[in-house]
Request: fold
Amino acid sequence: MMFTDTQLAQYEKHGAVTIDSPFTTDQLDRAEAAWDRLKQSGHEPYEDPDYIEVIQHPYFEEVAKKLLRANTVHLWWGLAPHERPPTNPPYASNRDQWANGCHIDIQATLEDFEATPRRMRAELWFWLNDVPAHRGAMRILPGSHRHIMEHWSRILQPDHKAQLPRVHGLRPAPVSKNTPAFPEYIPDMYNSTPWIQQDPSPAVAHRGQILILCSAGLHSAWMNEDDVPRKAMGTSWVATGVSCGLPKNQRDAVMDFFPRLRSKLRPDRTHIVPDTFDWLFESNYHPKWTETFLATY
Ligand SMILES: [Fe+2]
Reply:
């Protein structure tokens, strides 16, 4: 196993870690060619056999099992080939990019994160080309996941905690009135620098490495100042038996494409895509959980 205990400890502490994978150069070339084809054609990823080869590779499942402390896991979401294309100058300052872009995607409590199996989404970003800092490397604020999950542990009502983990995008104030999350926000922590003024780290990587991300912590997309795109394929996983919330449109999409993806997998790999959806509940921005914002905000 190339995912070591030390790296697992780093994930728990920082909310992100980059690990190696067993993919050969030849396999990476095929995966990257599939990525290029899919970007060009706009076809559904599960129609491409070389994409399927990546998604059903046992390594991701093994990493997810270890990460989630689970005997069995399954896909929660399969990211389409993901692109961070070159951005035209002028480039916004680091401070502005972070202040405007930082957010979380998963809402969960620290008890969820520390449970066995872990009630968290395992997000695996598989890099098909190098990710130097200037090629739109994702920015991550190490350790923020723990403070924010602690906050949810402290303030959420029990009946709401029972509806976690869920995909629920939130950011620190100010939150625009035009966003669906409004007026929910992530408060600054007592006695520390405001979130939007902190300095995130670039998640740099070599081709073939995997970023394991806990998106219950703050992270941000970043402008790609290079002249080639950043290329990724991603999957996300959950432990069997853990219920997960998704907004209606995302839940509908999963229920639509999982059966089609499943039909393309080798018979010995179909277990990574469930054929029932009792583990997947709908969770939207409405009705609002009023403890997630101040009435006066
Ligand atoms: Fe995100």
User: Anything to note?
Assistant: Residues 58 and 269 are 8 Å apart (CA to CA). The first strand starts at residue 16 and ends at 19.
